[in-house]
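Design job #97: recover the sequence.
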């Protein structure tokens, strides 16, 4: 009979070798860093032009910070005793694959170091104010699960992740290309911020029972699972409603109607959450939330690219 560890790994289809390190990055969350950079750059393309090297540098730096944040999450949740071999939604590198916690922490710091070097290049090509904002983002990436009072353990987790990874990253990606910022860019970033915050909310809905036992105070815990799912649905409605209003107001091109194809994925999220109470049962809903952000953001960026030529 397989052990509990082996059973969980089989259920989650976790493989050994390279896959151990790939899972540590939590690749399904990396779209939360790709999408804002892509959208911010495409907004800049519509208003002026873009430097492809700045785009690639910003993209890599953003993804490295996101991956490092995931590693800090893996490390500190293990240190605090929140993760075990039955935990889902994590890389499982420490609790199921036996990788040293210090190795995970060191790798996170290396990723931060590379991101800083990329940040220096971006600052040289644009403005040194970006260094200040970038360092603040990195600090919050660490404090998200590190520090005496981790942000992820409070009701501010969704707001913080949505604002920093959505609005701020879109704003930086636009600014380094144009050396300016507009109110339209800030407004257009809001739906992306909502979808990124929704990823965290879905994670907290799934982990509600375990988080409650460990003293966390997330929005999902404060509202209860059913109401949290209702709030998630309401946030999706707001995001798509804002998109429609931006198109009508001329802030977005008419081509941006293609973003509404992602409505079906958003509806799938709510459907997959209903009637579920076990983390393993809600994992598909969590994955679908990430895909909603991916589809919406990718389609929005493509619509802006198309609008630049027509």
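Job complete. Output follows.
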């Amino acid at each position: 009979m397989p052990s509990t560890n082996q059973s969980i790994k089989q259920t989650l289809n976790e493989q050994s070798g390279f896959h151990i390190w790939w899972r540590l990055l939590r690749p399904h969350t990396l779209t939360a860093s790709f999408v804002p950079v892509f959208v911010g750059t495409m907004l800049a393309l519509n208003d002026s032009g873009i430097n492809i090297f700045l785009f690639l540098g910003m993209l890599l730096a953003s993804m490295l910070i996101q991956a490092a944040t995931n590693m800090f999450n893996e490390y500190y949740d293990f240190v605090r005793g929140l993760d075990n071999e039955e935990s889902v939604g994590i890389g499982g590198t420490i609790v199921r694959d036996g990788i040293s916690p210090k190795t995970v922490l060191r790798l996170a710091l290396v990723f931060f170091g590379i991101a800083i070097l990329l940040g220096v290049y971006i600052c040289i090509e644009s403005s040194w104010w970006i260094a200040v904002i970038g360092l603040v983002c990195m600090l919050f990436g660490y404090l998200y699960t590190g520090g005496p009072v981790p942000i992820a353990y409070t009701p501010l987790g969704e707001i913080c992740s949505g604002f920093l990874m959505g609005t701020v990253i879109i704003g930086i990606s636009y600014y380094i290309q144009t050396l300016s910022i507009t109110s339209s860019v800030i407004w257009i970033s809001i739906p992306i911020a909502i979808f990124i915050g929704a990823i965290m909310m879905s994670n907290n809905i799934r982990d509600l029972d375990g988080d409650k036992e460990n003293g966390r105070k997330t929005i999902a815990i404060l509202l209860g699972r059913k109401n949290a799912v209702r709030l998630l649905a309401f946030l999706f409605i707001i995001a798509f409603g804002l998109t429609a209003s931006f198109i009508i107001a001329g802030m977005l091109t008419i081509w941006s109607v293609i973003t509404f194809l992602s409505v079906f994925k958003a509806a799938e999220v709510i459907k997959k959450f209903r009637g579920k109470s076990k983390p393993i049962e809600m994992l598909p809903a969590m994955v679908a939330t990430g895909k909603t952000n991916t589809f919406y953001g990718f389609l929005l960026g493509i619509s802006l690219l198309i609008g630049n030529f027509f």
